[in-house]
Amino acid sequence: xxxxxxxxxxxxxxxxxEKNKILNDEKEEYETKxxxxxxxxxxxxxxxxxxxxxxxxxxxVVFLSAALDILGNKLPPALVLxxxxxxxxxxxxxxxxxxxxxxxxxxxxxxxxLAVGSFVIVGAFNPVWVRILGVVLASISSGLxxxxxxxxxSYYHKNTISFYSSGTGAAGILGSLMYLALTTWAKxxxxxTLYICAPLPLAMVLSYFVLMENYKKKSSYNIDTINSDLxxxxxxxxxxxxxxxxxxxxxxxxxxxxxxAPLFLVYFAEYTINQSIVPxxxxxxSKIGWPQEDVYRYYQFIYQxxxxxxxxxxxxxxxxxxxxxxxxQLANMIFxxxxxxxxxxxxxxxxxxIILYEGLLGGAVYVNAFYLVSGATHIEKRYKEFCLSxxxxxxxxxxxxxxxxxxxxxxxxxxxxxxxxxxxxxxxTVPTRKH
Length: 435
Fold this sequence. Notes:
Strand content: under 5%
Largest sheet: 2 strands, antiparallel
Shape: globular
Oligomer: single chain
Helix content: over 70%
Order of helices and strands: HHHHHHHHHEEHHHHHHH
């Protein structure tokens, strides 16, 4: 090698080293800025998802609390429960197979307007069938929201699922307490109360369009060097599943069985308890000091507290063995069923503790199922969006079957409890408020 060639080689080596040093410095600066931005965006997304969960279930809870005011004493409150659940179940069962073709922005507007419209319709009209139609709109809104926000979570940090779940748990407490406070404590009519509630679902639009980072956003950083091919890209590799054939969608359900089967079992047992068994566990006013209808409201409120606590606990106490939760909830259902039939626990406070435990199991299996699927390595990333949205079908199916079973179980247990243990006490009725 000549002296000239040696000098050229050394110069090229030094020049390449200088370029690499500049590139490394640029990389460090980029990574620092990126970490700061990621923290801010993550916080915004988590808060947004909490609000989405809170408002998605808000109308559902309020209408369950307002069932007697909507129907009066002429029709059973279970009619509102059916209208509040069944349409949402039907939507959750079929929507994952076509709903992803609609852009998320349009979906959020549809979900929000359905929720707002449900409050307006129930509050503005007198015919019961029209008011029931309003409840149906709320159910559809909640069902569409569930599958939409769970699918959308595949584009964000998996903790968005735990914050969404916490929001849905908080909706149970907020909805029931808000309706109770405005109608009972503030002495407002149920119509005025529903009008006050109507604008609140608009928070979903604000959360999605203002607070949450756009899921389509791609941030990239290009460093101009002599090697123009060298680029640093921070690109979300997840893609929408827009054209999955039906056969593939069905096949994707198999790897979800360890998550969806326990979810189905827990929700079947949970709603059987809430709709069919708990109403039959009666206590005479002479023993507890409250009328039976107040006892049932306490059951529901304590249950919602348990759900909220467990849905907010996945980052502190994650659970991987979901089957255990399913079997424990089935055992809980059988135990409370024997209590309703044989009445061998005459203390309402013991029942309160069991109801709290029921809520803890239900909330835990819900949030952990979504959380585990979000982080599952055996499910390809490109299918995560569809898998997360289709999970909703399975717990919805559990609720549907429990409702069908409740048509036969609830009257039988209630009749046995009322007329075998407390013959003088007729099934409780609650006077409706004036509109």
